[in-house]
Design goal:
Elements: E1 4-5, H1 7-16, E2 41-45, E3 51-54, E4 61-62, H2 67-87, H3 101-105, H4 116-124, H5 131-145, E5 152-153, H6 155-164, H7 166-177, H8 185-196, E6 198-200, H9 202-213, H10 228-241, H11 247-253, E7 258-260, E8 265-270, E9 274-279, H12 290-303
The structure holds 6-diazenyl-5-OXO-L-norleucine (DON).
Length: 308
């Protein structure tokens, strides 16, 4: 798929890049430290298959938390709403994405599927006889979302996170104590870190964002990839919790369903209009791409994107 470079987007990227000096690349996953803090790129994918971009959109990034939206969709298709919301709640936390504090007061049931605890509980629900089979199903689903593209994960990033995931291990043990998680914690962490290390470029991210924007339908091929209610539910969580404890401010300033990851990726879905993929590894203090957020603010203003 070719993506034509857009002068207008280039100008916006140039302006938004000024923010990158105020951010920092994630370092708690050692392998992510290698990213260049001043990179910033964007792709927009339209329902008719046209794509426009600015910056180096071929660069591969790991999905990290963006994968949480995709496993939520798969878990909803695997076991249904009642089963998923038996394990996680519907509410934003106002806390950082890796916080453990609310698990104690919520009887270990994570408040929503976008924080780490909630995503671990959702990944726990992905069906399959082994970690390998479950990972294969996640990758296969993402391959379908990305338009039949070959998808794989970075073994280096997965291993680097697996070895240093002490906080995520604690979240799992806390949830295991109260029966939210029933499997072996090391197995779940292996699956989760590999899921977070799945790689793609901005263009693929924009294409997947478009599928959510079009209520689960691949508008390029006409194929329904997920039921409408699943796509809508995922978009709702993107609005209320997709930017963690910055989701309220993001809703005011940008106003679109979006999901960030600590690798610096952001996937955006502008309902019935287009999908957005952004990569800018310098993060703000809440773990969202600092240049990416600025870019989305400018795009929202310029193209009247807010759904509110
Ligand atoms: O579990 C973690 O900490 C990472 N694999 C994902 C966290 C993340 O991407 C938060 N995003 N802004």
């Amino acid at each position: 798929m070719e993506c034509s470079s857009s002068e207008e987007l280039k100008q916006l990227v140039k302006e938004a890049k000024k923010q990158t000096k105020f951010g920092k690349v994630a370092d708690y996953i050692p392998a992510l430290k290698k990213s260049s803090p001043h990179d910033l790129s964007v792709a927009i994918y339209y329902p008719d298959g046209i794509c426009i971009s600015a910056g180096d959109i071929e660069q591969k990034i790991t999905l990290q938390s963006i994968s949480k939206v995709l496993t939520l969709a798969l878990a909803l298709m695997d076991c249904g709403e009642e089963c998923v919301f038996n394990k996680v709640g519907y509410e934003p936390t106002g806390d950082p994405y890796n916080s453990i504090i609310k698990l104690e007061t919520s009887h270990a049931k994570p408040l929503n599927p976008m924080i780490n605890a909630g995503a671990l509980a959702v990944t726990h629900l992905i069906k399959g006889a082994s970690v390998k089979e479950r990972l294969g199903r996640i990758i296969e689903f993402i391959r379908e979302l990305a338009g039949d593209k070959e998808i794989s994960y970075s073994a280096e990033v997965a291993q680097s996170e697996f070895e240093t995931s002490h906080l995520n291990r604690s979240l799992c043990y806390f949830m295991k104590q109260d029966g939210i998680i029933e499997e072996d914690v090391e197995d779940l962490l292996e699956l989760y870190t590999k899921q977070c290390a799945i790689e793609m470029n901005c263009l693929d991210l924009a294409r997947i964002g478009l599928i959510f924007a079009m209520d689960g339908r691949d508008s390029v091929t006409g194929k329904a990839i997920m039921p409408v209610h699943v796509a809508r539910l995922c978009k709702t969580f993107m609005v209320t919790c997709g930017m963690y404890n910055a989701s309220g401010e993001f809703a005011v300033r940008v106003g679109i369903p979006a999901k960030s990851g600590v690798s610096g990726g952001i996937m955006g879905s502008v309902p019935n209009r287009f999908g957005i993929g952004i990569f800018g590894p310098a993060l703000d203090k809440r773990g969202n791409s600092i240049g990416g957020i600025r870019l989305l603010e400018m795009m929202s203003e310029r193209y009247k994107l807010s759904i509110f």
